[in-house]
Amino acid sequence: MLPPVNPLGGVFGEAWEMYKAHWRHFFSIALVVFVILAVAGILLGALLGWLGILISAFISIAGTFWLQGALIEAVRDVRDGRADLSVSETFGRVYPRLGTILVAGILLTLAIVIGLAFLVVPGLILLTIWIVVIPAIVLENRGIGESFGRSRELVRGNGWNVFGVIVLTFLILIGVAIVIGLVLSPLEEWLAGLIQQIVGNTLVTPFIVAVWTLVYYRLRGVEESAAMPAPEPETAA
After folding, report:
1. pTM (predicted TM-score)
2. For the chain, which residues score pLDDT lower than 50?
3. How far apart are CA 237 and CA 12, in angstroms?
4. Which candidate, 80, 90, 99, 187, has a CA 20 to 30 Å from the CA of 116?
């Protein structure tokens, strides 16, 4: 008996080809958000001290999910091979669902952090079953509660495959962070951190979001294939 086919096989290669073809577009979208977050963090830290740092951390979480929503919309846009939407149009498409994205993103973050605090495993399970919460909001216009249920529904039966994608994702993030850290090591610590926050995140985040968005499309494809009626057996003439 043949082993089941992994529906997520080759997803990193597909994401890389998409990233290479449209990196300028993705870079422009990510740069807008990370510059805003960096400036906000500097100003809040300088004006309010530790309170400003805490506020900027919250803003950073919200901004990251805002960016994820925009990049998901960008991936949908370029799947036909070309970018039809400008940067402002991409953010405009996400704006009507921004509140839902931010609330769902904050709830998702809190749940995973709490889960990681309890022996790590619960957090990893939640991250796995809720990996496509934001794509469900952006691409299917789901509500907050619906998006969590929809993600779990799509992942069901492919949990280990999704977990493998998550592990590889974090290994890529760690590897890139090490390389950028070594390149920037001669600089002052504050300057290296600022450059890494803006440039490093701008380069890496679009690729990671592309991977996780393509995971959504692959899982939805599995669902649609399973829902198709089986072909009628041919009868002998």
Report:
1. 0.88
2. 1-3, 236-237
3. 47
4. 99
The span from the CA of 212 to the CA of 8, in Å, is 10
Domain presence at residue 154: yes
Q: Please choose, from the candidates 112, 110, 144, the residue with its C-alpha nearest in 3D space to the C-alpha of residue 126.
A: 112
pLDDT at 2: 43
Residue written as token pair 């494809």: 221
Domain, as residue range, for 48:
15-224
Residue 234, token pair as written in the block: 């041919």
Model pLDDT for residues 1-11, shown as the tens digit of each residue:
444 678 888 89
Residues with Cβ within 8 Å of residue 43, at least 6 apart in sequence: 52
In a domain, 234, yes or no: no
Cα 210 to Cα 7, 30, 67, 77, 87, distances in angstroms: 16, 12, 12, 12, 16
* Distance, CA of 150 to CA of 155 (rounded, Å): 9
CA distance 66 to 53: 20
User: How far is 151 from 209, CA to CA, in rounded Å?
Assistant: 15
Q: Confirm whether 51 is domain-assigned.
A: yes
| Tally of domains within the chain | 1
- pLDDT for the residue numbered 144: 93
7 inside domain: no
Residue range 39-60, pLDDT digits in tens: 888 888 888 888 888 888 888 8
Q: Are 69 and 135 in contact (CB under 8 A)?
A: no
